[in-house]
Amino acid sequence: MKRLLCGIKKYPLFFLFGLFLTGYMVCDMCKYNTEYSEMENRMLAQRPAFTLSGFLDNTFTPKYETYVNDQFVWRDSWISLKSRTELAIGKIENNGIVYGKDHYLFEKYEKADDQRVKMNLRFLNEFFAQHPQPMTFAVVPNSYEVLSEKLPYGLDQLDQEEYIRRIYGEIDAPQVRTLDLLPALREHRDEYIYYRTDHHWTADGAYLAYRAYAESMGFVPVEKDALPGRTDVEGFYGTYFSKCKLFNAVPDVLTYYNIPVTEVTINGEAADGLYDYSKFSGRDKYAGLLRGNNGLTVIRSGNNTAPEEETTRILVIKDSYANSLVPFLTYHYDEVYVVDLRSLPMKMSELMAETDFDEVLVLYNFMNLASDTNIARLRY
Known about the structure:
The chain has helices at 2-10, 12-30, 52-56, 60-71, 75-88, 114-130, 143-146, 160-169, 182-187, 203-216, 239-244, 348-354, 366-369; strands at residues 36-37, 42-43, 93-94, 97-99, 105-107, 135-140, 176-179, 230-236, 252-257, 263-266, 269-271, 296-300, 313-318, 335-339, 359-365. It is of the alpha/beta class and 380 residues long. A hairpin with a 5-residue loop joins β4 (97-99) and β5. α1 (2-10) crosses α2 (12-30).
């Protein structure tokens, strides 16, 4: 005992560190597994089942390491401490997310996957060639391209404006119009058109794109002031925050409009309106818009007052950016069909054969267009 006390006096930091590790290990062993991280907006790894074969072929160890990294005790507090420490020493990037001006977060994006872009353009051109309907193809620039003045000095990002111009030049179908959204968005770059903590545009950004689309079609856009029931949902932390966990990030305000509709179906099942209101009280608030990224959503409304003898239909092939834009289209079409290729429950060829569409709108944000592996489903 005397030697132990002498050792503690001589090496106090060593013994304190050992005591800390022992205590932390005990707390970690007593901790229940967490299934979902509210801070990161993702499911956490669970304890993998041990098998001798998995241990020998080294498939068990990486899974267990992921599990330990996801489940250690006080994980969110340690993440917050890491964020504070890095910001204190002047670091302006974490996990691929850079810290911009006015509390904006941006994804570091220096190079696109040229091969994937080339493949996706081939799939799109094949789809365009197979169907004679009038179509519009719109690529949405991501926030850093529009809000470039908020980027950290010296950050070398991919020039999306030039790349989108090249993409449009590769479209080889006479009935397809390309829609350049960059001018309309840049004109309002001083407004709240992209979220600070998320990769999506806001309802105001989506409205600008809708207005540009409507004018390109010869429609009179519905004025924003005339839209019913604007609702603001506070406390939204998006995907960029989930990646970097910046401790002093300023939450966003998510906005939606209570546009009246008569019927909404999702994959053939009736749904209660355009929005999943339960999502607005959780972390992933954006998932409440259009009730998430469902395979086939059909919206019917009486908002279209144009004197048409027959029902007008538009097909929107999209990623999640369109979820905040689609409701505006009900003012110009009686039926709006919305397809997300990631979960479409049927073949595109079947949908195109069984439904007559007056117009097709293909809307993808640039980063998703450059990485999505589901666009190939347009061919089937």
